Amino acid sequence: MTRLLVTSGTLVAVTVALAGCGSPESQPAAVNTAAPADAGGALDLTDSCPETVVMQQDWQPEAEHGAMYSLVGEDYVIDAEAKSVSGSLIAQGVDTGVDIEVRPGGPNVNFQPVPALMYLDPEILIGAVNSDVAIVAAADQPTVAVTSQLTWSPQILMWDPESHDGASTIPEAAAGGAPVVTAGDVIPTLLVSKGIIEASQMDLSYEGTPQRFVSDPTILQQGFVTAEPYIYEEEISEWAKPVGYQLLSELGYSIYPEPLAVRPETIEEYGDCLAKLVPIMQQAQIDFLAEPDDTVALILELVEAYQTGWTYSQGVADYSVEQQKALGIVTDDPATGVFGHLDPERMESIVADFVPILVESGSISASDAEQISAESLYTNEFIDMDISME
Question: Which domain of life, per UniProt (predicted)?
Fold first, then answer.
């Protein structure tokens, strides 16, 4: 398995085996058959947004990014060399009057963090920026989250139940002193601070492959609840059995994963656009989970076209959608009942909990840490308070 693991404020890249041959030819565009949005209505973006709304993801195409890809119209064109897909921006079945371009992250952009990409290329209107990544970038490349998509992080620690006496939680599985294998130190440092593991258990050698776990099932290893449990049981023949796991969000890993963010100046320049686009993104996530098939088909097509060595199956995509719903990874904001709303108290706790960890890891300086406030990292200004999953 090959997958990026975002476990610290800086982007941690797990090496993937890149394909040696060129990318396939882009397919000819289909015809856009969506009806135009009502002129001047909530879904008409022609007078407020750029002609092409460019959105940047932080990893390869996958079902966790379904809301963004769901907006790409059926007239899409894949640029296999540049690694992007573009087409009419279709929201709730109508043509908004502008185009959308979605760009993947990870190896497609040499593993650069999304804030860096947003400042290198101002054409990127919106990027997916984890809360801890935003904290790290705040001094030089500040971003402001405008809505969540995934409400809770899907990151987990997983283990072999047989090797850990049927453990059902991370504290139970880690109690015997087993190594906690991750690709960065933020998660284990958080667990150490809470007394769940000892510092001696920290092992930062994870490379994104199953070999270590399969050969030494006594370890705990990080992963994603939307992928690894299915992959290990169904797609890794050397394992082919269930794993135990617990969501890290249940133990204080409270970051917003990949909320949609903009540069601060974008709020002033494109405020009218965001007032329409943010509610569109709120609803797009809900609609994607309700009817994911067409978007998943596009995601699988993109994975094949980009030829980066990333593998992603229909089974994993379907499992991801199921887990996002069943485990409440995507859910309304508990404080308001509004989908996509960013909780001020939670943002305060994220800053309070993660800034010291990021200073300790060397990801940010103590002087920069003093300048970071929760209020600078997000805004609910553009949220439609009537949008809910209920």
Answer: Bacteria
